[in-house]
Amino acid sequence: LVTASRIVVVGAGIAGLRTAEALRSEGFDGELVMIGDEVHPPYSRPPLSKDLLAGRHSPEDIALKPVRDLGNISWRLGATVVAATLANREVLLEDASTIAYDGLVIATGVRSRRLDLPGPVAGRHALRSLTDAMTLRPLLGPDRRVVVIGAGFIGCEVAATARLLGCEVTVVAPEAVPMERPLGHALGGELRRRHEDRGVQFRLQHTINSVHGDEAVTAVELATGEVLPCDVMLEAVGSIPNVEWLRHNDISLVDGVVCDSHLEVEGHEQVVAVGDVAHFPHAMFGGVTARVEHWNVPTETARQAAATLAARLAGRPLDNEPFFMLPVFWTHQFDTRLQSFGLPGLGAGDIRVLSGSLDGGVVMGYFSQDRLVGIVGTTGPKELLPYRAQLLQA
Ligand SMILES: Cc1cc2nc3c(=O)[nH]c(=O)nc-3n(C[C@H](O)[C@H](O)[C@H](O)COP(=O)(O)OP(=O)(O)OC[C@H]3O[C@@H](n4cnc5c(N)ncnc54)[C@H](O)[C@@H]3O)c2cc1C
User: pTM to 2 decimals?
Assistant: First the structure.
């Protein structure tokens, strides 16, 4: 049993929830305080750009149910943490109240990056939260003109969903192909072809200059001078880690919260980071440090972070084994389901077809110095399994 008075979890998303569960599994029997700035209890984000946006799922369908009894827990939803004093072990909330802790879990995720553009703000959307998705959903429908800025996975998923809802969709991005960084040129090109077959238009290797409209956006102007009329503009141009509340502590906040191979924040025992916001060493890739916004990262980091915190609170030494996890990601666009294992982006220079063909089902291998570091498949999961095993052995 690990007895301590209180662990505060900041961020009530999947990573915060899974860490709370894992802490109970580790035997922590003290008080848990879960603080989240959204009013909603934890929910699953992947459907926001797919089934929820398409109207096939309701907000209730995507709620995350705790997988175990969380015991003594207080939920502070709709509450923002504005600062933390790690040296004094306390967090400060927007309403000026403070909460002291024995252990702190940093689970604040990321927010959408927004473009700094002249012109009206109304009609410009981003997609990160349930509120964003519920705002966007009624705006999509037959003959609505949608311009998506950004051809990463969220931009491509929204483009596909909007098109399936009957919208006229144009994707504008500086890259040569959609999802270029994680997929590479060949598979990204194939994805473009599949989107175009379904009527999505692209303006790739283009940037935008300004937005037109008096009160709300009516068109987007590209750097070339081309004007794309639109009813809805979606900015899907990457994310920014939510770390501002941790400023003024002697910790590194370069691209997320930098932590060690136990997910502990250096110099601060009893403080751990999990999920999208955690920047940690990946034992699988020779200790390269990275922040990874993949679905399985919250659950895997939660397991390790809870073990670290429980050991610290019980005065036990930390396990010597460095944290090991295989990043897993998937995306669903029209009839294409792409599944990724590892970190394909690390092997962007050397990409090989491992099996199949691009226009059918394919498994691509991503190599760094001749070592397999990632695979991406458009096949079913069965075809990917042998390559997944190869990746784990590499
Ligand atoms: C639209 C969309 C589609 C996705 N689709 C896929 C997919 O198909 N496949 C896949 O693998 N992954 C997908 N992902 C990624 C996946 O959902 C994330 O990796 C995962 O949600 C990260 O969980 P998290 O708990 O770390 O962060 P979050 O889910 O972002 O949770 C963090 C929470 O902390 C809150 N918070 C932030 N700052 C504060 C503060 N100061 N005080 C209090 N609360 C705060 C935030 O508002 C948020 O509620 C998708 C993400 C999005 C947005």
Answer: 0.97
